[in-house]
Every structure is written in structure tokens, then in C-alpha cells.
Amino acid sequence: AQKVTQAQTEISVVEKEDVTLDCVYETRDTTYYLFWYKQPPSGELVFLIRRNSFDEQNEISGRYSWNFQKSTSSFNFTITASQVVDSAVYFCALSSLSGSRLTFGEGTQLTVNP
Amino acid sequence: GAGVSQTPSNKVTEKGKYVELRCDPISGHTALYWYRQSLGQGPEFLIYFQGTGAADDSGLPNDRFFAVRPEGSVSTLKIQRTERGDSAVYLCASSLTGPSGANVLTFGAGSRLTVL
User: Of A90, B2, B43, B83, which shows the fewest CB atoms inside 10 Å?
Assistant: First the structure.
């Protein structure tokens, strides 16, 4: 069975602070995919990134960066210089190679205060 | 359409009633998914369609839940004899191809179901 754990239920920061959202996963698959989605108050989940299990290179996209560490089964997400518009619920998710389903964590509610 | 469209956005019903929730995926997307999101939780998989057929319905909680996609485009999630525990946001998503764990899903805004 697959499992995704996001231990931080809520995080509150002040604008311009850096913030890291943690994600730990469990799977018996050797090939799998990891995702991050953002859910703003409108409710629509927005895709942020996908990584496959063979690619452990960290990735940076603007103020966003992701740290994938297979040895610790973690896929953490950092927002640099946070902005109020970053306020949302962020979900980490896991899928097997041929899977038709995503297994989501419970999400982290990020609030960025001005 | 430009995105995944779900109707109604909100539905309030009484316990025991029948409910239908509709999803209109992105044009050309062959794969369609339904997820359920309870308050404060992550989305949970319900069912996956590839074309017209339900390729994986193992997430449906019981036989009160049923979904169809008769022409391989629009899908309807049907819930019979609703219970208060069915209250949740029902999310629909679509992807260009399937099945593959690499698929990037595009989600709709959801249908919020409240069972009184």
C-alpha cells in the first residue's frame, strides 16, 4: 500500500520568509512518481511539479524548489521569499508507474501574512 | 472547454435522496477521474475511466456510488440513498492519456455535496 504523510497541518509565515513543506512517502514500488499540487481557496487543485523515482536532481522554478531524497523517502517543497498569493493548501501525492490513481497526503495549509 | 467543468458547484440534499454530479473534462482528454475530498483531508480516489469504460472503480466506497461516461467525454457520478457521511467535495480530473502514473491531472473546482 502507498502512503503519503504531510506532518505539518498548518504553517503561518510573514511575507518574504522562506518556508519548507515536508512530505514523506511509503511505497513498495521501485518506480513511482511524486507530485505537488496547490489548492487555493477556489478549490481547484493546481499542478506544480512531477518527479519520477529515478531522478533525484533537485529542481528550482522561480521561487519554488523541490528536494527529493530517496534515501529518506522525502520530497520537500520550499518557497523562497513567500508572498501572500502563496497562501493555499499544498498537497503531496504519489503514483505507481502504471497506476491510475494518486495517493494524496492530508495537505499543509500555508498562510502568508503581509 | 478550456478547463474541467463540474456542475453543480454546490448541492444540498436530504438523507436518502438521489444525487447526480456532472463532469465535463478537457476536450480530447481520454482519461477521467473522480476523487472525494472530505473537510481537512486530501482527495481520495474513487474511479478512473479510460474512454467509455471504468478501468478502475476500486475506490468507490459501496454500491450506492456509481459513475458513467457513455460517450467517452462527460461523466456523471451518481449517489443513491445519500447519507450524511457522503458530504464532501467531489473532484473530477482529466488527463490527456492513460493509464500511467506519470499522468498530470487537471482538476475541476469540485461539487460540494451536503447531505442534511
Answer: B2
